[in-house]
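PROTEIN DESIGN WORKSHEET
SECTION A - STRUCTURE
LENGTH: 460
TOKENS:
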């Protein structure tokens, strides 16, 4: 099936791609990506060929990714905010047939548009051949290259639409980068559901984009939501949307409570690169503070291992990691992928994520989960966000230290916080120190907090 041609037949002149410069209908999207696909073919790119794209979000990036999908090539969008040596290392491991930077990408697309229309023949959408390589987030070392098939992305979008439809007349802002699985997945959501994608300019804030485009749906991580809610004007814009999909990291009780109070249509979600984005999502906008991340979506399976780890499989599960020119499925003998996250699942298939296995540490012989302490901290009025990390201690081995962002510089006081945590989760889990921050250090090209930065005592 040619998913783009099919979308053009179904949705016709409905908007498909909106940028500052112009709006493309699904029919125009079909024609333009066909020309770009022909240009890639003329450069020797065919089915299975890897094309690396090192760029921020742009209309050219969207068109090129769709064109590569149509010829069965493997798109590898890379984080353009990574240091140059890391990008070089990734390219060395990928060995792409072609690499396009932002400027080269714009030139390539514009040149393709000047060529005469050709008889483009799309590749058949097969179950297993790869169509994308999306790299996982990494605070240090090399990010893992997750390989997905057409089927992975297709089933991911279909399962998502069953829970949160994205129809003609809707518009989803591309607020997540296309090198992130949450951004790339939007291509399939649009082509299958008929909603339009809005591409903001690189220097444009989300609030400005909400003014410029007819946005109905928005994906955010908690830090982005927090920043927007510092402005009453931005909060009012969020309130008018159909859905704000919130995920990527734990959501503090105080932030969620404030968003609900402002009547922002929050859908909590949990997902991963390996599962082609969403695993579970709220079935409706949340109306009360809750710890779960919604219900497990169609085409996904979830199981909790004996040690509490979340295991996943299903039609959305990636093909494996691309390593040394080969594919490593990275699943156990029963086909389960071990996420490294700890959690629980109810009889109604509501999934609660408790934290990362690799964040856990031992203090005085007891397992300490930083996320439990972080949740206790953000339940205290005045604390907006918290990160808890271990530090060496002669008596206990390790002790928790907290980094917090508060509404007022010195409120609540350290003594008040300490006493509150002791009363709620016990003295052993009470941090011995509270460091205040005004802005978080995040991972390159991401809004996720860089925990490794706060583990380093030199960064105090």
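SECTION B - SEQUENCE
RESIDUE ASSIGNMENT:
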């Amino acid at each position: 099936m040619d998913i783009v041609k099919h979308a053009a037949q179904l949705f016709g002149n409905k908007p498909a791609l909106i940028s500052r410069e112009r709006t493309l209908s699904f029919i125009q999207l079909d024609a333009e990506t066909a020309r770009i696909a022909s240009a890639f073919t003329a450069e020797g790119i065919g089915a299975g060929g890897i094309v690396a794209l090192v760029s921020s979000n742009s209309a050219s990036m969207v068109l090129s990714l769709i064109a590569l999908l149509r010829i069965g090539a493997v798109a590898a969008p890379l984080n353009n905010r990574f240091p140059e040596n890391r990008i070089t290392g990734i390219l060395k491991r990928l060995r792409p047939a072609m690499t396009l930077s932002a400027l080269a990408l714009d030139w390539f697309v514009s040149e393709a548009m000047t060529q005469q229309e050709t008889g483009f023949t799309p590749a058949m959408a097969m179950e297993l051949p790869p169509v994308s390589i999306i790299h996982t987030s990494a605070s240090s070392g090399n990010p893992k290259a997750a390989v997905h098939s057409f089927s992975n992305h297709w089933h991911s979008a279909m399962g998502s639409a069953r829970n949160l439809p994205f129809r003609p007349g809707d518009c989803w802002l591309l607020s997540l980068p296309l090198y992130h699985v949450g951004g790339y997945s939007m291509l399939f959501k649009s082509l299958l559901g008929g909603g339009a994608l809005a591409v903001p300019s690189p220097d444009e804030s989300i609030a400005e984009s909400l003014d410029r485009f007819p946005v109905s749906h928005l994906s955010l991580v908690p830090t982005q939501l927090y920043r927007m809610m510092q402005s009453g004007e931005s909060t009012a814009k969020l309130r008018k949307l159909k859905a704000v999909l919130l995920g990527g990291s734990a959501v503090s009780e105080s932030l969620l409570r404030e968003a609900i109070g402002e009547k922002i249509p929050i859908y909590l979600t949990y997902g991963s690169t390996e599962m082609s984005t969403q695993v579970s999502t709220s079935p409706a906008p949340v109306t009360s503070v809750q710890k779960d991340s919604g219900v497990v979506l169609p085409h996904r399976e979830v199981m909790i291992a004996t040690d509490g780890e979340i295991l996943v499989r299903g039609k959305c599960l990636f093909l494996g990691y691309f390593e040394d020119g080969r594919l490593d499925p990275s699943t156990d003998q029963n086909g389960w992928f071990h996420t490294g996250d700890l959690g629980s699942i109810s009889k109604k298939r509501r999934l609660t994520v408790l934290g990362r296995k690799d964040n856990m540490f031992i203090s005085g012989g007891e397992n300490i989960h930083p996320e439990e302490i972080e949740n206790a901290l953000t339940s205290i009025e005045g604390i907006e966000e918290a990160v808890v990390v271990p530090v060496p201690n002669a008596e206990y081995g390790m002790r928790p230290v907290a980094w917090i962002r508060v509404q007022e510089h010195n409120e609540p006081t350290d003594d008040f916080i300490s006493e509150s945590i002791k009363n709620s989760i016990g003295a052993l889990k009470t941090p011995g120190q509270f460091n205040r921050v005004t802005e978080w250090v995040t991972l390159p090209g991401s809004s996720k907090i860089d925990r490794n930065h706060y583990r380093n005592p030199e960064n105090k």
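SECTION C - NOTES
Residues 81 and 445 are 5 Å apart (CA to CA).
The radius of gyration is 23 Å.
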